[in-house]
Amino acid sequence: MSDVPTLHIRNVPQPVYDALKRRAGRNSRSLNMEVIAALEEFVDDDRRSRSVLRRLDALRAEFLLPDDAPPPEDVIRELRDAEPRGF
Questions:
Q1: Residues ≥6 apart with Cβ < 8 Å to 21
Q2: What angle do CA 58, 64, 67 make, to 5 degrees?
Q3: Per residue of the chain (87 residues), what is the pLDDT tens digit?
Q4: Tally of CA atoms within 13 A in the half-sphere of 65 that contains its CB
Q5: Cα–Cα distance, 4 to 44 (Å, whole number)
Q6: For the chain, which residues make up each domain, given as ranges?
Q7: What count of other Cβ atoms lies within 10 Å of the Cβ of residue 4?
């Protein structure tokens, strides 16, 4: 007996099933192998997304403005108003 888990999926919507069958054909794989590949891609994408979010949180922590800093829109307005008009 194998130690590899088995997953049974019921009530797959027909369009999803058809798309998986087409994808399996394009990739020269069985439907089972295509579903496994799709699940692996999902897990990898999820892992990458969480990694990106962690990096963004770390960057945000590095660039937190002090509580007394003016709002960005005020700084932009002040810089824009200070530019010569050229007319």
A1: 31, 34
A2: 150
A3: 578 899 999 999 999 999 999 999 999 999 999 999 999 999 999 999 999 999 998 988 888 778 888 888 998 999 998 887 765
A4: 7
A5: 19
A6: 14-82
A7: 5
